[in-house]
Amino acid sequence: MQAAVKAIEYFLPPDVVSTETLAAQFPSWSVAKIDAKTGIMQRHIAAPDQCSSDLAVAAAKKLFESGACSPEQIDFILLCTQSPDYFLPTTACLVQERLGISTTAGALDFNLGCSGFVYGLGLCQGLIASGQARNILLLTAETYSKFIHPNDRGVRTIFGDAAAATLVTAEEASEPLMGPFVYGTDGRGADNLIVRAGGFREPRTESVAETDRPGTANLYMNGPEIFTFTLEVVPACVNRLLGQTGLSIDDIDLFIFHQANRYMLEHIRQRMNIPAERFFIAMAHCGNTVSSTVPIALKEADAQGRLKPGSRILLAGFGVGYSWAATLLRWTSSGH
Amino acid sequence: MNRTQFLTHMDELMELPPGSLTGSEKLDEMEEWNSISMVGFIALADEHFGFIVSPRNFGSCNTIDDLLNLIKPLQAA
Predict the structure, then answer these.
(1) CA of A151 to nearest chain B CA: how many angstroms apart?
(2) pLDDT-derived band of residue B77, with 50, 70 and 90 as boundaries?
(3) Minimum Cα–Cα distance from A271: chain B residue
(4) To the nearest whole angstrom, how far is the Cα of A149 from the nearest Cα of chain B?
(5) What is the mean pLDDT of residues A157-177?
(6) Nearest beta carbon to residue B55 from set A225, A263, A267
(7) Portion of chain B with pLDDT greater than 90, in percent
(8) Where are the beta strands (DSSP E) in chain A?
């Protein structure tokens, strides 16, 4: 059996922070400047009582309402988040109950950021190829906004909250519909994208949480270091994947990379000589939503008619960890 | 890329009028030398000099000229 992406839906919480709002709060940054550097016009932000499970459930309900499948058919839930509702229990268990998914289904969380969706597809393929599951609900859900200090203009302009629900099913097919997968990890980058306080290494106390400046309880990102990391690993990762398959850039119908920010993506695209018409960017309406950027872009590419049955898509995720992964996808259905 | 062209690029990265930078400016005294202009410098080094420069590499640079001296030998190579 071959694992295939059958359907994707995503959910953005209703509260919006526009670029105009940020430009008004940080007068030295104009709307035009923020747009030029990020390509983001608005970010959706979870309400104070809205957690990752809420976003994931909303995305999954859209998936079920689309007719792609019913909750009863799901036999495994994989949920990727770094901002869970609780330390424990597992967010995927909360989601199982709220969606009415069978108690015979497996469910687990995994903690990755921007590489999470591609890793999730890799896990789905393993579960399906080994006969452990047939209909997997792959959820990516983040509320990074809860980590972000209101005065940190750099990360506030970039990140938005979201969840995506992807149905991955077992299909009879003569050739693989996803894969191969290439992965990469470099923990030396841990300090460059981190929420330091809140676990047990450095408990979150009032003194670190309640300050007028970003502190250890907040998301910290070293943008220049992350940019360098991206230049070092993404082209090499993509070339490793292409090398394994004997394909070239010309053989790929659409490239969908983690939607970090438009400036970085454009630089990488030009460096790799990928034609603009085969490089998809869809983040203006929602920002960098971490593990949901790739499924959101896939959904938008499909909605815009950029994907046809049989289209060969190259996906790459990279970021916090450092962690990165890339794979190929054969598009099997169009929902539009 | 010669020195004048480099300085013009750095003017643009730091959102200064063309011809502003002379090269001797001290980076730690320039508020324009921030994370955005650092990202721009990394992109410039990659695009024009074919060298992936890390903030660890340019942490020891004191002036604009030091930035050029960091990446210029790599263009010749």
Answers:
(1) 16
(2) very low
(3) B47
(4) 17
(5) 96
(6) A225
(7) 69
(8) 2-11, 16-18, 42-44, 76-80, 106-110, 135-142, 162-171, 178-185, 193-195, 219-221, 254-257, 312-319, 323-330
